[in-house]
Amino acid sequence: MEDQTLLPHLFRTEYRNIVSVLCYLFGIQHIEIAEDLVSDTFLSATELWSLQGVPDNPRAWLYAVAKNKTKNYLKRNSLFENRLSKEITYSADKSEEMEIDLSEKNIADSQLAMIFTICNPCNAPEAQIALALNLLCGFGGQEIADAFLTNKEVIYKRINRAKEKLKEANIKIEQPTVAEINDRLETVLKTLYLLFSEGYYSTSQDTPLRKDLCSEAMRLTILLIENKATNKPAANALLALMCFHASRFEARTNEKGEAILYEDQDQTLWNKELIETGKAYLNRASTGDELTKYHLEAGIAYWHTQKEDTAEKWENILSLYNSLLILEYSPIAALNRTFALSKAHGKKVAILEAEKLKLTDNPFYFSLLGNLYSELDNEKAIQHFETALRLTNSAGDKLTLTKNIQRLKEAKAVNNKPA
Amino acid sequence: MNEFLIAIHRDLKSKDASPSPEQMQASIKPFQEWIGKLIAEDRLVSPYRRWDGVGRVVKKSAVTDGPYAEIKESLGGLFVVRAKDYDEAVEIAKGCPILEWGATVEVRMALVSA
């Protein structure tokens, strides 16, 4: 790896590892100290490596320096005596022998404990996601701001407030007990799901950044699956869902970062390996008697990996959307159900039901109606697309809607031409 | 908008009234489709839930195992929907696919508290 890319790469992967281990050791109250120590380690690396060259094993170097800096800090500071010595069985004068365990196992354990802390519902979902990106994924303020389409200051404020909340609530950084896991895993999965969606559906046109968000969400979900206690069917279902969606990543945007609709995607760009991996996780999710929305959404996403429109495909998708609605109503599920209905039972049946949905402030409602009326009543279809265009804020959706309107108007012009 | 109780009554007791496993299987999908449609239209007042077919029957003198079956039919499903009036609520109830299997659906309007 080139020297210029090595350090940012190590920062992305190792910053979070060392921060997690130190936080796990110090507790949430001293999170800034952990971050300072690790930042300081990377600062030393930047200075020394540019003068003396990159060491043979850069990661080992970082770990050794981080350990030394931590030990020195503890020696100089009362933190160790006042707080840590009560919890760790070492005494102050033995601080030099204190083990800062940067083994692969302890890094994984620490990250897992951090996931559960960060996804604590005392913070709002968007704060949890910002915090996760910062502490668990090693994203800088600017990158997070780009993903959320906001500025760095907003993100810094959000992250700092979220940390304060965790401290006030005195949330412990610890492995959840077996009894706690089911309860707490639900909020963790929700945050990981949102993190993935942030990357997958973000309006940011920065494709590499969006891909990073998705792969980070997948990495953290894998972390849950690799731990026996958290390897639950719901986690496997969530990962299956992510695999199926991510399989289309290369096919869903053009070189300008504009969205390519499902129907128009080049199927050869779909990642077959990810689809197969997704299937394996979906199989593993099909144990036990718990049926979560991740199971249902993964089922729907699975059927979307079959490009060909078959009756079987849309009957299955329709029935999965019905079950999803029974589990939890959401306008988007209601709209998607109606789209599946049109594919399974025809546009006319779907229009009758769509018009009862009355989601009149939702642009997707009108673009659905536009799609359903296309070819049946192009005049009405154009009206609905135009309403959708007025309601949407997304540049990508505006582009698609404008194209649809243009296509229908052109069709009209051709039809009206005198013979 | 008013709220209506939709109560599905069906014969849960006598043997010949129990659907075969195939019939059960065949009735799940239309039922799910019907409920899915009502939820999509945001008609359900509270989240949909299933009720077991067992229950207890409480009287002053005793508590007996359910379901309540002094009449032939017991409560098989229960939920509350939003509808403008009885006509609309009855339209909704008519869509219940369990009617095909001999169920009766009772519709009752909730009174607005004074």
Automatic annotation (TrEMBL), chain A:
SUPFAM superfamilies: Sigma2 domain of RNA polymerase sigma factors
An individual GO BP term: DNA-templated transcription initiation
Superkingdom assignment: Bacteria
MF-aspect GO terms: DNA-binding transcription factor activity
Family matches, as Pfam families: DUF6596, Sigma70_r2
Residue ranges occupied by any DUF6596 domain in the UniProt entry: 184-285
Sequence ranges assigned to domain RNA polymerase sigma-70 region in this UniProt record: 10-78
InterPro entries: DUF6596, RNA_pol_sigma70_r2, RNA_pol_sigma_r2
Protein name: RNA polymerase sigma-70 factor, ECF subfamily
Organism listed in the record: Chryseolinea serpens
TrEMBL record, chain B:
Signal sequence bounds: none
InterPro entries found in the cross-reference section: Dimeric_a/b-barrel, YCII
All residue ranges annotated as the YCII-related domain in the record: 59-107
UniProt xrefs under SUPFAM superfamilies: Dimeric alpha+beta barrel (SSF54909)
Pfam families found in the cross-reference section: YCII
Similarity comment: family membership: Belongs to the YciI family.
Name of the featured protein: YCII-related domain-containing protein
